[in-house]
Design a protein that fits this description.
Immunoglobulin-like, 746 residues, alpha/beta, single chain, 31 strands, 22 helices, binds beta-D-glucopyranose
C-alpha cells in the first residue's frame, strides 16, 4: 500500500465523485475553494487507524540552527510512524521536500505534511511591523504585501502562515502590540481582511497562496498590566464589541485556521474554551477550518490550574474544539487512551481530523504533495525588485509624521546632516520582531540611506540604545554642531518588542532622552526618527525635537523609506492606529472612550472624570499624522435626515489641499450613537479613504452609512441598531469636533 493507497483513492474519488460545495464562501469572488469539502477526506477517515488519526492532530517544530536545517531524529521517526502530520519552522524547497518525502513515501497512507511558519510581516522581503503596516490605512497595499509574503513563503515549501494577528490592544506595555493593527476594531478588521485575502488569494490550490491562521483567539491583547501571557478578564459585551470583530473579519474572509490564545477568558484558558472555540467560532460564525493551539498551549493548562495533567489538558482541549496540538505532545501521548476510555468520542476526534485533512485538500496537497517545494520558484520569486518596491512603498506609507515645527522637513537634498543615535547605523533593528526568514544582508541602515541624499554626513551613536552611559555624549554634541540639521535615530532595540517583551515603562530606554537633551541644548534643528514597536511616552522628546517621524521598524527597505521621507522624495501619509499617551498613567487610553456619568466638560471643576496632574487628552490621538501640506474640511453634508432598516444615508465632505505640495490625507468617518440601551463610545470609526490631492485641489469624499455601521451588542445581547440620533464626523483624526446629525428609525 503506502502512498499507492492514497493516490489510488485520490484519483478514483476525485474522478468519480467530484467535489461538493458545502456552503457559499463569505467572499465568493475570492474564495474559490475555501469551503469545499473533499471526498478523499471521508475515504481516508474510513481507512485510518486511531493512531494515524491522532497523528494528524500533532504539530511539532523542526530542528533549525543557524547554519541550515537539520532534522532531529525523534521528529523524523514520528513523521515516519504517522505520529506527526504537521511541521513548523522548516522551510526552503529542499528541506520541506525531504521531510515531505518521508511522510508521503514512508508512511502507510502517505498523507502529506502541512508546513507552517510565522510569516508575520513578510517572509524574505520584510515589510514594516504590523503596527506600522496598519498606520498606512491602505488595505490594498497591505493585501499586496501579504500576497508577496505568501509567494515567497509558498515557493520555499510553506503552506500555512501564523498570521494575521488580530489582537486589538490598548496596552503599550505589552510587547506584542507591535504585531497587531492597533486599538480599533474597524481598522483592525480592514487590515485582517486584507491580509487573509493577500495570503490566500482567490484559490488556495494555487502554488503561490498559503493558508492564513487567525490569532490569537481571543483577546490575547488585553493582558492585565501588559505582562505577556497574563490573565485577561473582560465582559462578554466588551469582548464582542471591541475585540472580536477583527478575528471575525478574518474568518469571514475565508481564513482556513485559527490559533487559540495563551490567555484565559472568563476563567477558562482559551485553548480549552468551548465558548470561544465552538460556540462563537463555529456555531455563530460558521468557521469550518481547524483550530491549532499556540506553542505548548495545551501543556500550559496545567499551569493555569484547570487541568490536572497533560492528559487531562489534552482531553479538555480537543473536546472544546482545539483540533491541533502545537508542540505539547499531549495529543500524541494521551489521546489514544482517552478515546478508548470514552473521554474523547471517536466522533470528536474524527471531526478534528476531518478539518485538518480538508485544509490539506484545499491546498491541493493530495494531488501533489510537493507542489509547493520548488527551487526554481524559490529563486525566482524571492526578494524580487517588485517585492522590494512594494516594501519601500509600504514602509513610506507606514511612517507617521508627528511633528514638523516651522516645516523643518523635508530637508534640502545635498544639505549637511549630523546623524546621531544608537539606532542610526543599525540595519538589523529595521527588520523588527518576527522577521520571518528575513536577512539583514543588503539592508541599508538609516545612516547609509541618508548619506545617499545629503551633501555631507557626520555620524555619532552617542550612547547605547538601552544600557546606561554617557561616554559618547561629547562626540555626539561635537558632531551635531558640524552640520546644518541633526537627524537623531532613537527608539527601542527591536527585541524589546514582540513576544515576551513587556515593559513597565514606555519611555525611551537607556540614556537616549538625556542624549536628546544634550543635543537640543546646542540649539541645532533636530529631526527625531523613532524606531519602536509600541506607543511611547514622548512627552519630553516631542518638545525637544523640531520634527518627529515615527518609523516603527520599517523592514528591508526601511532605511531608504525614511531617507526618502526626510528629503521629500516621498511625503508622509501614515496615521496612528493607536493612541500615544502623555504618560503611562493614562493607560489604557483610546479614542473610543465612553462619556461616563461625569464627563470632563467644565475645565477646573473638581468632581469630573479627569486627572489632577495631567490632561485627559493623549499626546497624539488615534488617526493623527501630518504631511508636508495641509488640508481643510468642509462641514459634512448628509443625503437626507435619516433612514430605517434596509435603508442608507450618504455623508460627504469636501477636502482641500491648502498647502503648496501634493499630499495624501486619510479621510476618516466617525459616528456617535447619542442614546443606546447600553452606553456607547464617544466616537466609532466607520469608514476611511486615502485621498491624494495636488495643491489647491478639492475632492468630495463620500461614505455610505447603513444599519450595519450603527449596529452593536444591545442590552439583550442581540446585535443590531437602535432608533435614535447619530452624529457624523468626517475629519483627519479622531479629535474631530464638527458634526451633523441624522436619525435612524427602526
Ligand atoms: C506565538 C505565536 C506563534 C507560535 C509559533 C508562539 O509563541 O505566541 O504567535 O505563531 O509561537 O511560532
Amino acid at each position: 500500500m503506502k502512498r499507492s493507497l492514497l493516490f489510488l483513492l485520490t484519483v478514483l474519488l476525485l474522478a468519480s465523485c467530484g467535489r461538493s460545495s458545502v456552503k457559499p464562501a463569505a467572499d465568493p469572488a475570492r474564495a474559490a475553494n475555501f469551503n469545499k469539502s473533499y471526498p478523499i477526506v471521508d475515504s481516508l477517515l474510513k481507512v485510518m487507524t486511531l493512531e494515524e488519526k491522532i497523528g494528524q492532530t500533532v504539530l511539532y517544530t523542526s530542528d533549525w540552527d543557524v547554519t541550515g536545517p537539520s532534522i532531529r531524529a525523534g521528529y523524523v521517526d514520528d513523521i515516519r510512524a504517522g505520529k506527526c502530520g504537521n511541521i513548523f519552522n522548516a522551510y526552503t524547497a529542499d528541506y520541506t521536500r525531504r521531510l515531505q518525502e518521508i511522510a508521503v513515501n514512508e508512511t502507510r497512507l502517505g498523507i502529506p505534511l502541512l508546513f507552517g511558519y510565522d510569516v508575520i510581516h513578510g517572509f524574505r522581503t520584510i515589510f514594516p511591523i504590523n503596527l506600522g503596516i496598519s498606520a498606512s490605512w491602505d488595505p490594498e497595499l497591505i493585501e499586496q504585501s501579504a500576497r508577496i509574503a505568501a509567494r515567497e513563503a509558498a515557493a520555499a515549501g510553506l503552506h500555512w502562515t501564523y498570521s494575521p494577528m488580530c489582537d486589538i490592544c490598548v496596552e503599550p506595555r505589552w510587547g506584542r502590540i507591535s504585531e497587531g493593527a492597533g486599538e480599533d476594531a474597524f481598522l483592525g478588521s480592514a487590515v485582517a481582511r486584507a491580509m487573509v485575502h493577500g495570503y490566500q488569494g482567490a484559490d488556495l490550490e494555487d502554488t503561490l497562496t498559503i493558508a492564513a491562521c487567525v490569532k490569537h483567539f481571543a483577546a490575547y491583547g488585553a493582558p492585565h498590566a501588559g505582562r505577556d501571557y497574563n490573565t485577561v478578564d473582560m465582559s462578554e459585551r466588551w469582548l464582542r464589541e471591541f475585540y472580536l470583530p477583527p478575528y471575525k473579519a478574518a474568518v469571514d474572509a475565508g481564513a482556513q485556521t485559527v490559533m487559540a490564545s495563551f490567555n484565559e477568558y472568563d476563567g477558562t484558558p482559551a485553548t480549552a474554551n468551548a465558548h470561544l472555540l465552538t460556540e462563537i467560532l463555529r456555531d455563530e460564525w460558521g468557521f469550518d477550518g481547524f483550530v491549532v493551539s499556540d506553542y505548548t498551549g495545551v501543556m500550559e493548562m496545567v499551569n493555569h490550574g484547570t487541568s490536572a495533567d497533560l492528559s487531562d489538558a489534552s482531553i479538555q482541549a480537543l473536546n472544546a474544539g482545539n483540533d491541533m496540538d502545537m508542540q505539547s505532545g499531549g495529543y500524541s501521548e494521551f489521546l489514544k487512551k482517552a478515546v478508548e476510555e470514552g473521554k474523547v468520542s471517536r466522533k470528536t476526534l474524527d471531526e478534528a481530523v476531518r478539518r485538518i485533512l480538508t485544509v490539506k485538500a484545499r491546498l491541493g496537497l493530495f494531488e501533489d504533495p510537493f507542489k509547493y517545494c520548488s527551487r526554481e520558484r524559490e529563486a525566482a520569486l524571492t526578494k524580487t525588485d517588485e517585492n522590494l518596491a512594494t516594501a519601500l512603498e509600504l514602509a513610506q506609507e507606514s511612517c507617521v509624521l508627528l511633528k514638523n515645527h516651522h516645516d523643518i522637513l523635508p530637508l534640502r537634498q545635498g544639505s549637511s546632516v549630523a546623524v546621531i543615535g544608537p539606532l542610526a547605523n543599525s540595519a538589523d533593528d529595521l527588520l523588527g520582531t518576527w522577521r520571518g526568514a528575513g536577512q539583514v544582508d543588503g539592508v541599508k541602515s538609516i545612516l547609509d540611506a541618508i548619506a545617499e541624499h545629503a551633501g555631507h554626513v557626520y555620524y555619532a551613536p552617542g550612547c547605547d540604545v538601552s544600557k546606561p552611559g554617557q561616554k559618547g555624549f561629547d562626540e555626539a554634541e561635537y558632531t551635531a554642531r558640524r552640520a546644518s540639521t541633526v537627524v537623531m535615530v532613537l527608539g527601542e532595540p527591536c527585541d524589546w518588542t514582540g513576544e515576551a517583551a513587556s515593559r513597565t515603562s514606555i519611555k525611551l530606554p537607556g540614556e537616549q532622552t538625556e542624549l536628546l537633551k544634550r543635543i537640543a541644548a546646542t540649539g541645532q534643528p533636530i529631526v527625531l526618527v523613532l524606531l519602536n514597536g509600541r506607543p511611547l511616552d514622548l512627552s519630553e522628546e516631542s518638545l525637544l525635537a523640531d520634527a518627529v517621524l515615527e518609523a516603527w521598524y520599517p523592514g528591508t527597505m526601511g532605511g531608504e523609506a525614511v531617507a526618502n521621507l526626510l528629503f521629500g522624495e516621498a511625503s508622509p501619509s501614515g496615521r496612528l492606529s493607536v493612541t500615544f499617551p502623555r504618560n503611562l498613567g493614562q493607560v489604557p487610553i483610546y479614542y473610543g472612550a465612553k462619556n461616563t456619568g461625569r464627563p470632563y466638560v467644565n475645565i477646573g471643576a473638581k468632581y469630573e472624570s479627569r486627572y489632577l496632574d495631567c490632561p485627559n487628552e493623549p499626546l497624539y490621538p488615534f488617526g493623527y499624522g501630518l504631511t508636508y501640506t495641509t488640508f481643510s474640511y468642509g462641514k459634512p453634508v448628509l443625503s437626507s435626515d435619516g433612514f430605517g432598516p434596509g435603508g442608507s444615508i450618504t455623508a460627504r465632505a469636501t477636502v482641500t489641499n491648502t498647502g503648496s505640495r501634493s499630499g495624501t490625507e486619510v479621510v476618516q468617518l466617525y459616528l456617535r450613537d447619542m442614546l443606546g440601551s447600553v452606553t456607547r463610545p464617544l466616537k466609532m470609526l466607520r469608514g476611511f479613504e486615502r485621498v491624494t490631492l495636488e495643491p489647491g485641489e478639492s475632492r468630495e469624499v463620500e461614505f455610505t452609512i447603513t444599519e450595519k455601521e450603527l449596529s452593536f451588542w444591545r442590552k439583550d445581547m442581540t446585535f443590531g441598531a437602535e432608533a435614535g440620533e447619530f452624529r457624523v464626523f468626517i475629519a483627519g483624526d479622531s479629535c474631530a469636533e464638527d458634526f451633523v446629525t441624522f436619525t435612524y428609525n427602526d
